[in-house]
Amino acid sequence: MEPTSEAVRVxxxxxxxxxxxxxxxxxxxxxxxxxxxxxxxxxxxxxxxLLVWSAHLVLGATVSLLLALLVRTRRTPAALAGTVGAxxxxxxxxxxxxVFAVAFTxxxxxxxxxxxxxxxxxxxxxxxxxxxxxxxxxxxxLVVAVAAALTPLQLPAAVLRLRxxxxxxxxxxxxxxxxxxxxxxxxxxxxxxxxxxxxxxxWLALAALFFAGVGWEVVTSAVPGTGAGARSVAGGVALxxxxxxxxxxxxxxxxxxxGGPPGRDPAAAPLRWVLAGAATAVLLCYCFTNxxxxxxxAARLRPDGAGPSRALVAAVGVAxxxxxxxxxxxxxxxLLLLGPAAAAVTGYALxxxxxxxxxxxxxRCTGVLVLLALAATVVxxxxxxxxx
Length: 388
Prior knowledge:
73% of the residues lie in helices and 0% in strands. It is mostly helical.
């Protein structure tokens, strides 16, 4: 999960528009959320996880289709911020960049806390209570990621292409063997607030899922300039959304079948450690590139337009560590995930506003529906935070 311009390098593949677009949609959406979200959503919603995932996927695919059709006739590819800036004005681009720059730091704190939870689950046999051990592990992981981001190290393009596949394989193994698994109802863990149940937990899960949905906007970089027709664009988005749905719903189904925490079976301990280590390595890789992404986004807000300096990368790292302190409360991970979720909702809402103002009748109606769905998610999630 990264903003479009950083997650997918759009190129002329020579393939038909629909399959090429489908691949870019899937590559844009599928990321660290494959590892983080199954346990979080299952811990919040229990047997309702598949329904919540389905609702998110329908909304995300609709947003992607709306944006794709909105920019289909544009000649210049642009990230979401550049697209809404061109359609609504420079203020919209600054809003999107501003919220993403801040939200990405909270997202990296959530990723680090989840990796720490995996490691502590491997040691204890069940998701741990939030506390000093988890905080120190999360901070250590963030320090490693930020230190790597401050070096000249660049990941080869082949590694970036293979990373979602590695994340998906590790995620499947983790959910199958319950690392960290689904927290027991009412258990004091970082995966879900223990006092939150029912509709409140469902809405919190749906809102947090926008963390896994950052990437639906990849179409603003993939579609312009291709000359693809509306039917081809719609087919590509639908095919990509179907691929994303197969992955996410498949992981959610395996997580639901696996059930609760792994337990203390000594024979399974080595496997738990292997899976926790693999998950940590993959998530560290995402943190490394995401810290740089946050710095690049923040740099776009500077009047001089200069690129990100080492000082800015370090400042992003400090912000990540500050957010990590919030993870010490029960249910800290989904609460931290609301940061990038809020950024995604803001960007998608501005995209819908642009569709209402600049699109044809069909896009205007769809834009209104998307705005209503996003507003309902926000309005119905806020009361649940009082119980968190």
